[in-house]
């Protein structure tokens, strides 16, 4: 018998006798014969653990990781350093082998950790409340659009800035395809949402205005202006942001955000080839009872001991079914735990220091690259940890050359922005050293 | 009482360090306009590294996972999460790769996804797999949108009704609603299965499809599935398979052969990836060939031994998440499939079903069994009899905590009063089942003797029953710094 299945043949015999059947196979007799699978599944041959380990190592070795490559690629997934304590603690199996904490008395560990996560996200964004997590930044943004739409009487337009990550915009389109919604994309002007255009298009049919800051090109947007336009038209203001940037940038709450959402992979979660990442979702008290996903609340037992429970469950699919605010069930609790541990490591000062280091590194890298004479900054706007260059050379060629030297170059904007054929989006986190940045400039600037 | 991390914070204590740097460091005011800047720092805790370690280690001791003990949570398939899966998912070549790296530098990752897709297609009897959805509910949404797009492509815009049984998971109607469908509910018959006659009355030219879990949430195989499929298909609708209960059918019966057109699998259930205290999971979908043009982009294709992402799919529903899927979960699921092989997977279902039936046979004289003498991988008993004696299902569940068990799923499915849904999985031994059975029988005796004792349980946990009404009425969803003058 397999090592993951403990029943011995003697026990199996005893069990079928007790049940009163002649064989285990008889237990499957309710499956009509015509749809019984009679052969053997055509799957790869069973591997022992040692063989499996070797095969997986081989597959992993066919990939070049950020241990092998110096990473200047961002565009929605970032190479931040993960302190050892994060994995050491998330690897405790009491956390990772648990289900959603339905039984609060034996789940206080994960419930309290989520409560701490909610507190940290609320604190950084300046919002009243945050939920236990969403799948990723794209789905959390789409869910915010849904809530805004459902709660806006007879309004069906959602204005989305083109500065929002292209994949997030695609996900919004998919999530909204089942609803009576019109999505209008607001173009950029000099790398920032065109606020004149936004003001023109925002009207009494607009349910929500959705802006990303720092936007896809790393530019810090004028959130006060965006918030004013949205609220002048009684539309909800959805802000997609980077929690690390908020170490130095003004919390979106101060610009009147109704929903603050985004991707928090950079907080203690690896790049993972795109998932699992971590969506966060924060809002005001007004929308607390409309929020999607799990929410943990503080309460007490009969003896007055403090404890935590999943709360406001009347919003959720297992109670409300088709009338639920969202269909989400599993979320990304373990990624949220990693982020909670990471934010505890950062602390009050660390978050600021990290943000400032990213911003300074990015500024230095932009100057070094522009100095080569082969690039210019596409937009003259303040940026955070990422910036858009326009290259003389085709960025694909630059990236090929860099890869040969073990450098993972920037994102080629022609992939998603046809108007930016020579755009090269470079991300610089706190991990990058002066020597690495100097080397990037040298190799990106010179033709081999 | 466990302190919150904010309550152990001490000014200027730290656990964070940055690289030293020779790059000139400007202040925030020099980099950004004043009006863009934060004035007050976020009040994250100021703690040492050991503080962090002790705090979260202590929290972990206040939590219960599959590694802690028996976890028969019905419909959730809480089976052993093999350690090798965790190990391989942590390899840098998997964990530390960027989704936008050139395809030439991630061939191993793409190959793994391609091979996993092939295995999942074989297991489900479907033609093609899309690995993108993050969880079962997102898989449902993606699958239903595929169905919607297909009908639209056929010019049948009027097909706006999805039929769900009354025993369905809550995500089914919720996913159908957000995908833009109206929901029709079909009743269960006296055998706990879809009422075929009522189904015939419900279908029509507006039928988009039927969502079904098979075995259903009562742990029963829908014996009329072939006829059900025929009714739906004849009406012009499609069949959606909720794979939450796929642990019962591996190598025994395939949704594709049952007549389903779209399937989702919960890799965090059937394929042993850990639940993580509520995720991350992964909810890939499988489709029949004619629906493949509609799945989310990109899909992974292979040509001459090279793997690539194909975005050129004009009929696709678009994207349901950024990038390609919960890759590190996919790695674990594939590791599991490889460590089981075809015969191993069939043994999984044999033993999962055997264990469930064994438990049922030893509990049915004490607890009411509303449907059937037999079950598949899980079964539902009712605490109605015990409730009449003075302790309801919630108390039985809480009493189980005192004995060191995670309780079954309770009050679901909705069609059974005082429901307890028990799923032992194949990973548990006969003596574990025997001990649990003995405890459930003992609790019944306790209720006969003194229901109040059971009603006041749990007695041994770090907190007693928590006041959920208070939590919902006056929600406290974050720490109040102001009231705790930090």
Write a structural description.
The complex is a heterodimer of chains A (448) and B (486). Helix content of chain A is 36%, strand content 15%. The longest helix of chain A has 39 residues, at 333-371. Chain A has a seven-stranded mixed beta sheet with strand order 2-10-9-8-7-3-4, with helices on both faces. Chain A has three domains: 9-51, no CATH class; 70-81 and 354-445, Aspartate Aminotransferase, domain 1; 85-340, Type I PLP-dependent aspartate aminotransferase-like (Major domain) (Aspartate Aminotransferase, domain 2, 3-Layer(aba) Sandwich), CATH 3.40.640. Chain A has 13 helices and 17 strands. Chain A starts with 8 loop residues before the first helix and ends with a helix. In chain A, helix 3 (84-90) runs antiparallel to helix 11 (333-371), helix 5 runs parallel beside helix 11 (333-371) and helix 12 packs across helix 13 (434-445). Chain B has 486 residues and is α/β, with parallel strands linked by helices. Chain B has helices spanning 28-31, 49-61, 83-89, 92-95, 107-124, 136-153, 171-178, 196-202, 225-234, 255-258, 327-363, 384-389, 393-402, 430-449, 451-455, 468-473; strands at residues 128-130, 161-165, 182-186, 207-213, 238-243, 262-265, 285-287, 299-303, 306-310, 379-382, 409-410, 419-422. A seven-stranded mixed beta sheet of chain B has the order 1-7-6-5-4-2-3, with helices on both faces. In chain B, helix 5 runs parallel beside helix 11. The two termini of chain B are 19 Å apart. The model of chain B has no long low-confidence stretch (mean pLDDT 96). Classes of the chains: A alpha/beta (448), B alpha/beta (486). Chains A and B meet through helix 1, helix 2, helix 3, helix 4 and helix 5 of A and helix 2, helix 3, helix 4, helix 5 and helix 6 of B.
């Amino acid at each position: 018998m397999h090592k993951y299945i403990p029943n011995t043949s003697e026990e199996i015999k005893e069990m079928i006798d007790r049940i009163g059947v002649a064989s285990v196979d008889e237990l499957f007799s309710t499956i009509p014969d015509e749809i019984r699978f009679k052969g053997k599944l055509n799957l790869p041959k069973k591997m022992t653990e040692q063989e499996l380990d070797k095969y997986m190592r081989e597959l992993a070795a066919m990939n070049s990781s950020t241990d092998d490559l110096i990473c200047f690629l961002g565009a929605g997934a970032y190479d931040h350093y993960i302190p050892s304590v994060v994995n050491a603690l998330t690897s405790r199996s009491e956390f990772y082998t648990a289900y959603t904490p339905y039984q609060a008395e034996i789940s206080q560990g994960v419930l309290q950790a989520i409560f701490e996560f909610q507190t940290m996200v609320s604190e950084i964004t300046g919002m009243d409340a945050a939920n236990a997590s969403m799948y990723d930044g794209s789905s959390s943004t789409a869910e915010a659009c849904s809530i805004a739409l459902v709660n806006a009487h007879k309004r069906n337009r959602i204005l989305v800035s083109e500065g929002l990550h292209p994949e997030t915009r695609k996900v919004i389109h998919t999530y909204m395809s089942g609803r009576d919604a019109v999505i209008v994309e607001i173009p950029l002007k000099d790398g920032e949402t065109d606020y004149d255009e936004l003001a023109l298009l925002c009207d009494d049919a607009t349910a929500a205005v959705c802006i990303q800051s720092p936007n896809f090109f790393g530019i810090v947007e004028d959130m006060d202006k965006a918030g004013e336009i949205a609220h002048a038209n009684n539309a909800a203001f959805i802000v997609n942001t980077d929690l690390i940037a908020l170490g130095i940038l003004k919390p979106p709450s101060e610009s009147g955000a109704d929903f603050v959402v985004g991707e928090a992979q950079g907080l203690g979660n690896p790049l993972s080839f795109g998932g699992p990442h971590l969506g966060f979702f924060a809002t005001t008290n007004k929308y607390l009872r409309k929020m999607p996903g799990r929410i943990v609340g503080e309460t007490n037992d009969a003896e007055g001991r403090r404890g935590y429970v999943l709360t406001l469950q009347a919003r959720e699919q297992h109670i409300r079914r088709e009338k639920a605010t969202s269909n989400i069930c599993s979320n990304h609790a373990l990624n949220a735990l990693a982020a909670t541990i990471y934010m505890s490591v950062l602390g009050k000062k660390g978050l600021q220091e990290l943000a400032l280091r990213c911003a300074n590194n990015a500024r230095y890298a932009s100057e070094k690259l522009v100095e080569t004479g082969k690039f210019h900054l596409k937009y003259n706007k303040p940026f955070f940890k990422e910036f858009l260059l326009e290259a003389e050379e085709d960025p694909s060629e630059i990236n090929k050359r860099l890869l040969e030297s073990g450098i993972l170059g920037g994102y080629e904007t022609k992939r998603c922005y046809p108007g930016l054929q020579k755009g090269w989006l470079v991300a610089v986190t706190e991990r990058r050293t002066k020597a690495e940045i100097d080397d990037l400039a040298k190799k990106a600037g010179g033709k081999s | 009482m466990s302190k919150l991390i904010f309550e152990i914070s001490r000014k200027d204590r730290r656990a964070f360090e940055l690289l030293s740097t020779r790059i000139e460091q400007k202040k925030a005011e020099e980099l950004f306009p004043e009006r863009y800047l934060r004035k007050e720092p976020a009040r994250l805790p100021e703690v040492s590294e050991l503080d962090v370690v002790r705090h979260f280690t202590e929290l972990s001791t206040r939590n219960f996972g599959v590694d802690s003990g028996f976890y028969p949570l019905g419909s959730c398939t809480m089976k052993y999460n093999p350690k090798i899966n965790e190990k391989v998912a942590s390899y840098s070549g998997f964990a530390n790769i960027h989704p936008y790296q050139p395809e030439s530098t991630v061939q191993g990752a793409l190959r793994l996804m391609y091979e996993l897709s092939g295995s999942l297609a074989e297991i489900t009897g479907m033609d093609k797999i899309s690995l993108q959805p993050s969880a079962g509910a997102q898989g449902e949404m993606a699958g239903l949108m595929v169905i919607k797009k297909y009908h639209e492509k056929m010019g049948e815009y009027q097909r706006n009704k999805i039929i769900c049984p009354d025993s369905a998971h809550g995500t089914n109607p919720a996913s159908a609603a957000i995908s833009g469908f109206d929901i029709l509910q079909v009743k269960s018959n006296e055998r706990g299965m879809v009422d075929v006659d009522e189904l015939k009355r419900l279908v029509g030219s507006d039928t988009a499809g039927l969502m079904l879990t098979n075995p259903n949430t009562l742990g029963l195989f829908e014996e009329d599935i072939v006829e059900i499929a025929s009714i739906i298909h004849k009406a012009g609708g499609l069949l959606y398979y909720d794979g939450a209960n796929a642990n019962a059918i591996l190598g025994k019966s395939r949704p594709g052969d049952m007549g389903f057109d779209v399937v989702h699998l919960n890799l965090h259930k059937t394929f042993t990836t850990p639940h993580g205290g509520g995720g991350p999971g992964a909810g890939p979908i499988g489709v029949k060939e004619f629906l493949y043009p509609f799945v989310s982009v990109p899909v992974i294709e292979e040509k001459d031994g090279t793997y690539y992402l194909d975005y050129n799919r004009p009929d696709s529903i678009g994207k349901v998440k950024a990038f390609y899927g919960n890759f590190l979960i996919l790695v674990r699921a594939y590791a599991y499939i490889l460590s089981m092989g075809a015969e191993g997977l069939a043994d999984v279902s044999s033993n999962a079903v055997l264990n469930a039936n064994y438990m049922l046979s030893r509990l049915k004289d004490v607890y009411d069994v509303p449907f059937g003498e037999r079950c598949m991988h899980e079964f539902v008993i009712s605490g109605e009899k015990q409730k009449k004696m003075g302790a309801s299902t919630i108390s039985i569940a809480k009493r189980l905590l005192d004995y060191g068990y995670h309780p079954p799923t309770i009050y679901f499915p909705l069609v059974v009063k005082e429901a307890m849904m028990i799923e032992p999985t194949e990973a548990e031994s006969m003596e574990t089942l025997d001990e649990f059975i003995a405890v459930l029988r003992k609790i019944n005796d306790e209720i006969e003797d003194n229901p109040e004792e059971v009603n006041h349980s749990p007695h041994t946990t770090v907190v007693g029953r928590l006041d959920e009404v208070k939590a919902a009425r006056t929600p406290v969803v974050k720490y109040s710094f102001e009231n705790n003058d930090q």
